[in-house]
């Protein structure tokens, strides 16, 4: 990380804050490689808290300078006008994901609003916060296309797609994820939005060992597939995505739709398009959803890919 580029980083954050950021937003996306020397740095605005993430261990001099710049930022009038309550640095390169508060007081479990829907975050203990802001357009798409649908949400995590689907009038949503703790948080997200939980099913199972149970609750009018790029011992992208698409024939209803997502720079859109042709040739590619502009990447194929099939 380039110490000389820190001024650019702080200036960009100030510019973004001046536009009255919403409850949850990416303010700086160094991972998009548009700012040389800052590729391993991101900044998120989460319920009036500025969370800086470092993805590679920096030199001690860089950390000291970053902390000094952030402390200086808190003295400026435009910062005070934001209502900010905390600045913290998350060291994503460390095994324990250490989060260091450098100003204010951290609220670990704030509730944020995204397009009128409420989600509870969990900041400080885990690598992720409980909601992926780059997928906001995907959640909106699901909400807009869920009316009367029977929805399957694979790799549901904290059930963001499920919340969007029920808000959009889905008849029923089945969430599948092997992490039961994440599904419990998803249940709470539904409760935050005063949803009827009798329309939502939570299956805490390994997807690859539970096709019978998943199929029994089908067929589905809309299937969302949003797996991790890699999860040791449970998911390898190029090998296991194919296994999922192979099941579409027995899961997807006539005229059904699939939102297939992948967030890995090692594959492009053609990976999903061609694999779908091979494993489920009756399903046709329709469109790629736009990513939020704040997640712009110098290589669009390296960023999140959310593709609609029908």
UniProtKB/TrEMBL annotation:
Keyword Nucleus carried by entry: no
Any one Pfam family match given in the protein's UniProt record, by short name: Methyltrans_SAM
GO terms, biological process: methylation; rRNA processing
InterPro entries (UniProt xref): SAM-dep_methyl-trfase, SAM-dependent_MTases_sf
Domain S-adenosylmethionine-dependent methyltransferase: 25-310
CDD domains: AdoMet_MTases
Listed GO MF terms: methyltransferase activity
EC numbers on record: 2.1.1.191
Enzyme kind, highest EC tier: transferase
Keywords for this protein: Methyltransferase, rRNA processing, S-adenosyl-L-methionine, Transferase
Protein name: Ribosomal RNA large subunit methyltransferase I
Encoding gene per record: rlmI_1
């Amino acid at each position: 990380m380039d110490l000389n580029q820190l001024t650019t980083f702080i200036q960009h954050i100030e510019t973004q804050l001046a536009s009255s950021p919403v409850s949850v937003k990416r303010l700086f996306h160094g991972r998009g490689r548009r700012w040389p020397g800052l590729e391993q740095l991101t900044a998120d605005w989460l319920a009036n808290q500025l969370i800086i993430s470092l993805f590679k261990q920096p030199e001690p001099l860089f950390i000291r300078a970053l902390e000094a710049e952030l402390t200086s930022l808190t003295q400026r009038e435009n910062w005070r006008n934001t209502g900010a309550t905390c600045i913290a640095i998350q060291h994503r390169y460390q095994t324990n994901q250490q989060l260091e508060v450098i100003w204010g007081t951290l609220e670990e479990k704030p509730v944020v609003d995204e397009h009128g829907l409420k989600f509870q975050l969990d900041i400080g203990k885990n690598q992720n916060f409980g909601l992926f802001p780059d997928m906001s357009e995907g959640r909106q798409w699901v909400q807009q296309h869920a009316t009367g649908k029977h929805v399957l949400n694979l790799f549901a995590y904290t059930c963001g797609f499920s919340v969007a689907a029920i808000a959009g009038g889905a008849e029923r949503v089945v969430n599948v994820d092997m992490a039961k703790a994440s599904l419990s948080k998803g249940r709470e997200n539904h409760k935050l939005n005063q949803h009827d939980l009798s329309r939502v099913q939570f299956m805490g199972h390994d997807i690859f060992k539970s096709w019978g149970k998943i199929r029994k609750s089908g067929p589905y009018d809309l299937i969302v597939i949003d797996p991790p790029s890699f999860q040791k011992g449970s998911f390898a992208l190029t090998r296991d995505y194919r296994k999922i698409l192979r099941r579409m024939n027995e899961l997807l209803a006539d005229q059904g739709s699939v939102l297939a997502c992948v967030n890995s720079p090692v594959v492009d859109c053609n990976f999903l398009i061609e694999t779908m042709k091979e494993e489920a040739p009756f399903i046709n590619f329709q469109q790629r959803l736009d990513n939020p502009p704040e997640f712009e990447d110098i290589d669009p194929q390296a960023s999140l890919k959310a593709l609609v099939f029908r």
